[in-house]
């Protein structure tokens, strides 16, 4: 069959060639061998493999897991762990108690040491200031007894009085304060009674005179004041002796 030929122009030629083409197609189809049995076998193999996979999955799902330890072993292990936990908790509580006791002991030691330090400092201060109080006493005696007559004596008097004033100001800065005992009620914690005087001008137990001044350092007594205390008046001899002739009445 030629390209570009018009079948209408040569109808005889077209009818002649048609049987030949059909014959050739039949020969080609006959030469092709189709193995239907092999196709069927491959399909069966595929289906069999799928079935085996499904059976294996089902068997794996149905198969029990690895056997665990017996229940008694689990109970024993749990009991052992619980005992270990209890022991550890006991140790923690014991260590906590030890820490609390040590902390309390240390706090008590710190307070005690601080108190002892303060007491020692106060004692040293009291001893030092107590030694200076005698100097103060001498200055006060000199001021009360010495009466300057001349200008030179007055100059000397003013000079040592200025030293006395400076010393008193220094003691005040340290917290030293003099007692004012005269006219106050006698207090054995502050006063030392060296004399009692019967009098009706003061009530009994009132300090009527101060011989040596006392001093305080804060609330601590540096030196007790030496004082004279009022006592009740004694009855007179005239009132004790009865007048003559009184018994006759």
UniProtKB/TrEMBL annotation:
Gene3D superfamilies: 3.90.20.20, Head domain of nucleotide exchange factor GrpE. It is found in: Cytoplasm. It holds the Pfam family GrpE. Residues 1-74 are annotated as: Disordered. GO terms for biological process: protein folding. This is Protein GrpE. NCBIfam families: PRK14140.1 (NF010738), PRK14143.1 (NF010741). Its main location: cytoplasm. GO terms for cellular component: cytoplasm. The lineage of its organism: Bacteria, Bacillati, Cyanobacteriota, Cyanophyceae, Nodosilineales. It comes from Vasconcelosia minhoensis LEGE 07310. GO terms for molecular function: adenyl-nucleotide exchange factor activity; protein homodimerization activity; protein-folding chaperone binding; unfolded protein binding. Participates actively in the response to hyperosmotic and heat shock by preventing the aggregation of stress-denatured proteins, in association with DnaK and GrpE. It is the nucleotide exchange factor for DnaK and may function as a thermosensor. Unfolded proteins bind initially to DnaJ; upon interaction with the DnaJ-bound protein, DnaK hydrolyzes its bound ATP, resulting in the formation of a stable complex. GrpE releases ADP from DnaK; ATP binding to DnaK triggers the release of the substrate protein, thus completing the reaction cycle. Belongs to the GrpE family. Homodimer. The gene is grpE. Residues 56-74 have a biased composition (Low complexity).
